[in-house]
Each structure stands twice: as structure tokens, then as C-alpha cells.
């Protein structure tokens, strides 16, 4: 990383993907990202914590805990999930609730679900979950739903209203084996269309799902095949924030009134899209690991876009 | 299609073999008695099945070896045939008895595709 890269202009709105990817790499040195009105700017960690608490509705996203992972990239994902929970408790303004955007476990094993549930019990706020593909291996998510969202019927997707915001949790990891493609499926899309009908265009919308909802890097499966249909139902709204996990790094994209954001993992990083032969756990020096893991704070203020701050565990 | 091709499906961890060898000659014999006609191996590396298309004779035991750190699995789209998660360093074996072309994917990473041609 050169000096010039570090001297990026943080107020430029239309950052290209390449430039954003550079910024992401930079996040590895302890930088926190803030997106306000779709414009990313970086904050040092101390600065982020010193910033005055915003007035809006505040919640947190965590993702990709991968409990059960035991390889070199992070031999102790339990400890880093615990560190993420500690970070949540230290935020200047306590969040109203927490979203977990999937891959709670690594292999969908019962003992992994047990361990994860035990650690996550320490979170004081309600946690709303949506599964990743690692949570539904071999049983279509049976254990996952029993454990984390027992009240949810039908296909497991759901919505709720909190703080003046309409939250929609969607599942894009269950059609893989049926359709050979990651996607929502027609039943879920029909549900989404109906679910959104009762809401005025001025309602802030937050959609959360595991796999990115735009073609971030389809070659590595970082895309949701039928997401464009979902986005067509969302386009009439004035503020739409799409929160995803899956790729274990922060990537942002702004499309009109829609901002797409992927989050860091609490377990291990993955390579930047297309760098190297395949995705998967990426080894970093042990003393750097927590600088590429993190949580995300989101503040939704009336009549404004979401303000998003990614906080590393370093 | 239900009993598909599987006379025997094993997750062949090395430890399973070691345990068998040490503990029970009887088990060894039983294993030998249903040993398939031949065997073939598919490597999973960098999120790819290598080779992506494999042609075998009926009765061949095909073993997938996961050489990635990421877990994968092997699933036919109609669900007739599906492994549990194969973690990095683990293997999965299925015996293909009946002729035909059997396409499969990794349901964890559906961009990964392969096929077994039995003839």
C-alpha cells in the first residue's frame, strides 16, 4: 500500500470498485469506515469511539462467526466472537438490537450450534438471525431454525418493524441444491412483494441476507441470482440499506437510493474478489487477525441515508 | 433412484480405517467382501472438482478428497445423493453401480459442478 493510496479522497461519491477494494485493504491497518449518504469516509478507531452518539435508531450487524472452524486462519473463532460481543457492549450508544447475517456455524454440527448459542447468550439485545450456507449443510437449516428462529414459519424469511424502520430478513442459501444457483426463489420473492406493499415510500428499509445481493463476484458465488427481482420491489423506497455477509470483508456499492454493504466476519478474512485462485479462509499474521475482523454499527436517521460504521476487533 | 448407486457410502476418515484395522478382523473381512470393482479419486482443490468429469465402470468406488481448508459437499440436484459436510482434509466415498450420467454440485458453493459418467 503506497502513500498515495492512503491519501485517497474520502468524500468522492462515485468510488469505483477497484478503489473501494483498495480502501478495504487499508481497513486492515485498524481503520474504521463510515458511510453517510453513501459516501465512505474513514475514521481511526479512537475517533470512532469518541464521536458523539447519533440521534437515530442504532443497531449492530455481526456476521460469519463460523463456530467450529479450527484451521490456521483462526484456531479460536469462539474467542473472536466473544471479542465482537465485547465490542458491541462498548459502543457509545447501546444498539437497539443485533442482526446476525449468517454462517453462525462452520459445518452445521449440533455441537457448533450449542457453542454459538452459549456465546451469543451474552448479548443483551435481541438478535435476529438469517442463515448462511454453512448453517444449512445437510438438513436445509432444520437445526438452525429450531435453535435461532423457532417462531418463524414457511421458508424462514421474515420482516419486522422497529424504530420506524422496516426490516426484512431474506434467505438466499437454500435454493443452491435445487436450482444449482444461489437465490431467493419465487415463493420468497412473492412474499417480499406483498410484505412491502403496506409500507409508504418514505419508510426506511433495511434488507439483510447472507450472500451479497448484487453481482459482486459471481465467479466465486458472491452473487444472488434472482436479486434483481427483489430490488425491483424496493426501488420505490427513498432509503434502502442492504446488509450482507458471506465474503468476510467490507465492500460497498451505491445504486441510486440503495446502498449495498458486506460486513467483516468475526472469524477469519477472505481474499479480495479475484485475488488468488479461490475464496476461502485467508491467513494473516496472528497479531493482525483482529484488525480484519469486526462488527458494524448502523444508524438510521429520519429523512437520511443509513450511517454505517465498521469497527474492527483490533 | 433412491438406492441410487450406493451399495455403500462411507466417510472414509483415515481414523476409521485405523480403528477397523486395529479392532476387528471380522470387520476387515466384511469390508473386503463388499470391496467394489475399482476405485477412483476426485480432488477438491481451490473450489473445483478435479477432474470435473470422471468416467468409471459400474461398481467403482469414487472418493472425493477435500484439499481445501473450506468445507465442501457433494449433492445431486434432485437430492438423490448427498454427502454431509466434507471438511478440509476429509474424504467421502460413494459406489456407483448403475450406468448413467450423474451430475452433482457442492451445495455450499453451487458454482462448483461435476459429473460422474458410469458405463
Verbal overview:
The complex is a heterodimer of chains A (314) and B (119). Chain A has 9 helices and 13 strands. With 314 residues, chain A is of the alpha/beta class. Chain A has a single domain (3-312), classed as Purple Acid Phosphatase, chain A, domain 2 (4-Layer Sandwich). In chain A, strand 3, helix 4 (77-90) and strand 4 form a beta-alpha-beta unit. Chain A starts with a helix and ends with a strand. In chain B, 16% of the residues lie in helices and 35% in strands. The A-B interface holds A 71-73, 106-109, 133-134, 137-138, 176-182, 218-221, 277-281 and B 46-48, 68-71, 73, 75, 77, 79, 82, 84-85, 87-88, 105, 107-111, 113.
Please give the structural blueprint:
The complex is a heterodimer of chains A (314) and B (119).
Chain A: H1 3-6, H2 17-27, E1 31-36, E2 39-44, H3 45-50, E3 57-62, H4 77-90, E4 98-100, H5 110-120, E5 127-129, H6 142-148, E6 158-162, E7 165-169, H7 176-179, H8 186-197, E8 205-208, H9 227-234, E9 240-244, E10 251-255, E11 258-262, E12 294-300, E13 306-312
Parallel strand pairs in A: 3-4, 4-5, 7-8, 8-9, 9-11
Antiparallel strand pairs in A: 1-2, 1-13, 3-12, 6-7, 10-11, 12-13
Chain B: E1 9-10, H1 14-23, H2 25-33, E2 38-45, E3 48-50, E4 53-56, E5 60-66, E6 91-96, E7 100-105, E8 113-118
Parallel strand pairs in B: 2-5, 4-8
Antiparallel strand pairs in B: 1-6, 2-3, 5-6, 7-8
How would you briefly describe this protein structure?
The complex is a heterodimer of chains A (about 325) and B (about 120). Chain A is an alpha/beta fold.
